[in-house]
């Protein structure tokens, strides 16, 4: 069996080209979409991601800025920063990079973001809209996976989608998006007993558990589509997915590599959400 290797870059390029055009149109109306990313602390990987987000937004013709805060920042100071961004008309999208230091209540911070600028789609109002099937900001990684499914014309309706991982960032919204498209959805997680029993039934398998190579050849259904959200770094700096790609690739019809799979889509959907925010604010 020869699998289609799904590179996020191929799908992302198409979307970024059309976003660039949309940004140009908005600029003619005097609106330059603006994205601010706030990062607290010194986590090296988070800093790299945040710079990539800023660069991608600038390359798409938007305004973008990273606000870097010291690890010792108080919760109140962070809430004040968000409050002023909420009131800044030149800013359409606000993203607070997670995780935050332990002394800051993450949920309180996410709930302080104006839902109309919540380009991560993490505010409970936007999560609620997703649950009831209303149009809203959709969390970027699951949204990117939906775009990849659509691009490769992989059927969703009536299919069994199994999601490993129940984070608010990926697993939970992923399941809801697939359910909204008439998949039968099973959530698995670190406490699931007999995991293989579920993964082997999956027509679409989304793995977002953050443990290198936990899914092997015996765990997947033949002919299925595999999306690997894993990003574990080895000591020598290599990136590994949650799926043992080399062993799985010959058994499935579609698979994302790590790196170069889903990663480029996450940032692209953030750009999409920021343009959408600028458009709705200006209406
Ligand atoms: N940390 C890891 N992924 C994400 C994401 O998609 N958004 C935010 N805000 N933080 C993250």
Automatic annotation (TrEMBL):
GO terms for cellular component: cytosol. It comes from the Bacteria. One of its GO terms (biological process) is L-histidine biosynthetic process. This is Bifunctional protein FolD. Signal peptide: none annotated. NADP(+) binds at residues 165-167. Catalyzes the oxidation of 5,10-methylenetetrahydrofolate to 5,10-methenyltetrahydrofolate and then the hydrolysis of 5,10-methenyltetrahydrofolate to 10-formyltetrahydrofolate. CDD domains: NAD_bind_m-THF_DH_Cyclohyd. Its EC number is 1.5.1.5, 3.5.4.9. It catalyses: (6R)-5,10-methylene-5,6,7,8-tetrahydrofolate + NADP(+) = (6R)-5,10-methenyltetrahydrofolate + NADPH; (6R)-5,10-methenyltetrahydrofolate + H2O = (6R)-10-formyltetrahydrofolate + H(+). It comes from Halalkalibacillus sediminis. Keywords: Amino-acid biosynthesis, Histidine biosynthesis, Hydrolase, Methionine biosynthesis, Multifunctional enzyme, NADP, One-carbon metabolism, Oxidoreductase, Purine biosynthesis.
